[in-house]
Specification:
Number of strands: 0
Number of helices: 14
Strand content: under 5%
Number of domains: 1
Largest sheet: none
Structural class: mainly alpha
Shape: globular
């Protein structure tokens, strides 16, 4: 396979095998600890979220949660599109397992945990850590561009009610420039060089970046529908675009609050400010709070479903892992 080569510590031999078993044990312990933290985080929110849930119509809640789950699947498609474009195709279930289980690390203070966990889970299945990191960083960047595209689309409402946030749209040209194949390839090779990995064997293709961007925009639109359904008809259908822009900008701003678990508080502030353009402050606050709880539940459910499905299909997935493995211990297993 072109691109990333096996790490020296993963050569065949008894010492590597011993180290591999230790690392696998550490990975499972870390994953278990992260899941516990995420569940604890959700449990601490429940007493606050439950009263607001009780005020909302069950059908609206069910529909909103279903749409949110669909949005999470589009996020996985965006991530796997980038990983595939970086030279390591993976089945959707394996990509979902790596991305969804790994992203639970965002509930541990310090967003780097999500990237580290995704790298280690990918490593377990033969994908070079550096390649997974590049895919995850690209996915974050693509998500930022997607949110800015939607913010431009909702500019009339934002400019009228929240002119102080319009400056963020100035980042769109920079974001679009970074999605150009030659720029993305340069940035990917820079990260690989820092990890002492060989550069990509080919330039990142434009269809890869456009595909990932399309899936990301689609996910934010679904998240916007998720928010709109929570309004119970108080917001007009035409406000779905504003909701999508709100949640996209909320995610983008929360990336800079990396010391907070999943950007808690920062994302809600953006949501309340944007939803406050069409709802009362109380309604906007309640919806932002319920949305946070639903996203946490969605992260846990989809990560669990992906891990369980991967376990059921482990033999089929293992064959695909071995064929494309970038580490000798996986290729020879």
């Amino acid at each position: 396979m072109s691109g990333v080569t096996a790490e020296p510590d993963d050569r065949a031999g008894r010492p590597a095998s011993w180290r591999t078993r230790v690392l696998q044990t550490v990975r499972w312990v870390v994953i278990a600890a992260v899941v516990v933290v995420a569940v604890w985080y959700f449990a601490t929110m429940w007493d606050t979220v439950a009263p607001e849930l009780a005020k909302m119509h069950p059908a609206a809640l069910a529909g909103s949660f279903a749409v949110l789950l669909a949005g999470l699947m589009l996020t996985v498609l965006s991530w796997t599109t980038l990983l595939n474009g970086l030279g390591h195709p993976v089945p959707f279930i394996r990509g979902a397992q790596i991305m969804l289980v790994g992203q639970l690390g965002k509930y541990v203070p310090g967003s780097a945990w999500a990237y580290l966990l995704q790298m280690e889970i990918g490593r377990q299945y033969g994908i070079a850590r550096a390649r997974v990191l590049v895919a995850s960083l690209y996915a974050a960047g693509v998500g930022v561009v997607a949110s800015l595209v939607l913010a431009v689309a909702a500019l009339p409402q934002l400019n009228e009610g929240l002119p102080q946030v319009v400056w963020i749209i100035a980042l769109l040209p920079v974001g679009l420039a970074c999605l150009l194949p030659q720029v993305m390839t340069f940035l990917a090779n820079l990260v690989l060089k820092l990890f002492r990995r060989t550069p990509l064997g080919q330039r990142v293709k434009l269809r890869t970046t456009l595909g990932a961007l399309g899936w990301s925009i689609g996910s934010y639109v679904l998240y916007g529908v998720h928010l709109w359904l929570l309004t119970g008809g108080e917001a007009a259908v035409t406000d779905i675009l504003l909701c999508a822009a709100a949640i996209g900008m909320g995610f983008t701003v929360s990336l800079f609050a990396f010391l907070l678990p999943s950007g808690v508080g920062v994302r809600e502030a953006v949501l309340i400010g944007c939803l406050g353009l069409v709802l009362s402050a109380g309604q906007a606050s309640a919806i932002a709070l319920v949305s946070r709880g639903m996203f946490t539940a969605g992260d846990l459910i989809t990560a669990g479903a992906a891990a369980l499905t991967a376990l059921v299909l482990r033999r089929r997935l293992h064959r695909a892992d071995v064929v494309r493995a970038e580490y000798s211990d996986v290729a020879n297993s």
